[in-house]
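Give me the fold.
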Amino acid sequence: MPAALHPGDLVGLIEDRGPQLAIVQEIRGSRATLRVGATARPVALPVRQLDLIASGDRFSAPASGPVQQPWGLETTTLAAALPPARELASAWLLLGSTPDDAADPGAISLEDLADLLGSASDTTLRAALWLWLQADQTFFRWRHGQVLPRGLAELRRLRLQRRREQLVLDRRNAWYQQLRLRLPITITDLSGAEAEELALLRRWALGDADTPLPPALRQALQQAHCPAEAGAIRHLLADLGQWSRHHLPSLESTTWELGFTAELEAEAERLLSLAEAAWPGDEHRRDLSHLHLFTIDDDDTVDIDDGLSLDVDPSAGRPRLWIHIADPGRLIAADSPLDLEARRRGSSLYLAPGTMPMFPLALVTGAFSLRQGQRCPAWSLAVELDDEGAVQSYELLRSWVKPAYRLTYSDADELIELAPPEEPTPALIHALMKQRRAWRLQRGALEMDQAEGRIRCQQELAHLEVTDPSASRSMVAEAMILAGAVIASHGIASALPLPYRSQQSANLPSEQELAELPPGPVRHAALRRCLGRGHVGVQPAPHFSLGLEAYVQATSPIRRYGDLLTQRQLALQLEGQALLDEAQMAALLSSLEGAVREGITISREDQRHWQQVWFEQNPRPNWRGLMLRWLRAQDDLALVHLEELCLDFPCLCPGGAQPGDQLLVRVELVDSLRDQLRLRASI
C-alpha cells in the first residue's frame, strides 16, 4: 500500500514531458497540490499518481519547489549523485538476477536501493535513482512504488532490442547527415523509411505539400540550409543526385514521361510490317504519284505530314494547287490501342530537348510521313483560286503520292527568290498564296509576322533559335490555312460535324492608335491583347484573326489528334458509312481538352525553364529591350521584347515608361531549379 503523503514531501510524477520531481504543498482528500519542476509550477493531481521519494517532515515548512532550498535538486546535482553504470549493474547482480524469467526476484524499496548504493538518508541520491528508474534502463522495473530487478533473459531481450533500435537510430542519423551535407545517395542503399522520406521530398519538389514533413526530416532540411519549399528542395535533391536539373514538374508521371508501353511499340512494329500490304479502301485511292510534289520543313523535323504540288487545268489553264496531307488513319483504326493512346496525348509535344510524338516514333518517321521517293498514302486537296484569291473550285480525295524531294525552308526561299526555269513550282505557288493572303487581309485578317525566338537544347546546353519571317514559311502557312478553310466549307455544305476552330470578333485599336505605335512587336502586342482565345466546337463559326467564315485544323494528323478526327469523319463520308453525329464528335473533342491543356502547360514550362537556363549560361550586364505594354502598372510590371532574343518577358520597368520605349534590361535573379527569373529595366 502506498505510503501516506504529507505537505513538504518530495515526490515523483510522470507528465507528457517525462518524469518530474515535485514538492507536496497540501493534501485534500485524494488530491494533492504540488509545486513541480525547476519553475515550481502549481499542479493538482490525485495522490495515487505520485511516488514518495523522501519525507519532508524535518523541514518547518514545505519548500517552494524541488530546486529551491532546502532540497536544492538541480539537474547538475542530480546527475552527479547518480552512481556509475558499473555500480548500478553490481546492484542488479546483488539483488537477485535469475537465469530466466521462471522465478521473479523480490522487490525492494527505493530507500533500500539507495542504501545499497550509498546512503538511504541521501535525498539527492534517492531522487536521482527514481528519475533513473523511470528512464530507458534495462536493470530494474519500477512498479507500484517498488524496485524489481529484471530477470536475465528479459535483460538480454531488452539489450538486443536496444541494440537494434540503436542501429536503426544510427542509420537514421546517417541518412539525415547525408541530407545535411548534401552528399549523393544511392536509392538501393536506403531503408524503407528513408525511401519514403525521399519520395516525400520529391512530392514537395513537385509542388505537392499536402503531406507534412516529419519533424526530424524538417530539422535535417534546416541544418542543410534548405527551406521547406519546392525550389529549395529541388536544389537539395539535385545535390543528392535524385533530381535532374532539367526535369519538368508538369511532366511528372504523365503519359508523356511514361512513354509508350512495350505492347504499343510492338503494335507499331506490326503495323509497319504491314504498311506495304493492301488495306481496305486502297483500291479507291487515286494515283497522283506523277505530280511533282515537294515537302518543306525545318532541318530537324521528323514528322512530315504535308506537301505541295501544282498543275494546270488543261481547259482553263488556271493553276491548280494540290495540298497533300499524310494519312495515318489508313493504319490506325478508331478506338484501337494506338488510337486511344494518341487521344490521351492529344498532340505531339515539341520541347527544347526534342519531340515527344503522339504516335510511336517508328510510325511517325516511317509509314505515316510523306517520305521523299516513297509511295505514300495521303489525303489530297486540289484548289483553284479566282483572280481575287477566293476559292473557285476544289476536289478532296484519298490518294497515292510520291514526294520528289524534301526542302528546308532556306532551300525553298532560294527557289522562290531565284525561280529557276528547271524548278518554277515554288515561286508559282508562292505567288498564288500571296494572292490568297491578300484576299484574307481584305476580309479583316490580321498580319502579325515577326521574328520569333525559341530556346532549344543539346546536351544540356541552351541555344537560341530565331525563326525569321520568310517567303517559304508564309507560303506553307497560307496553304495550310487555305486547306482548313476549304475543308470547313466542305463540312458546312455536307452538314458534317467537324472540329471547327473559331475566334470571336475583337475591338481592335483604331488605325490612328496603331499608327502611333512602332511597327513590329509593339504594334503586334497591342493587337494580340485584344484578341480572344480560339474555340473548338462542332458548329462552324467565324475566325476573326484569320478573316475566315469557318476554319478547321486539318493538315497535321500525325501531330494533332483533332486533325485525325477530321480525316476520319471525311473518310466515313467518302466511304458512305455512318458519320459521327454532333454529340459523338463533341464528346471526343471534350475528351481531348484535358490532354491539350496538359500539353500546353508542359510546353510552356519547358520553354520557360530553358529560357532561365539560357540566362544562367549566357550572363551579360544588360540586354536591349523594347517596352510592349503594361501588365500591372501598379506593380511596375510590363511586357518587354528582348530584341536580340526575339522573345517577350515580364519585366520590372520604371514608372512612366510607354510602349515603344527603348530599355536596358538586366537580370536581377535567375534560378532555373526554383523557376525564377526577375528582369529589371531602365530607360
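The two ends are 89 Å apart (CA to CA).
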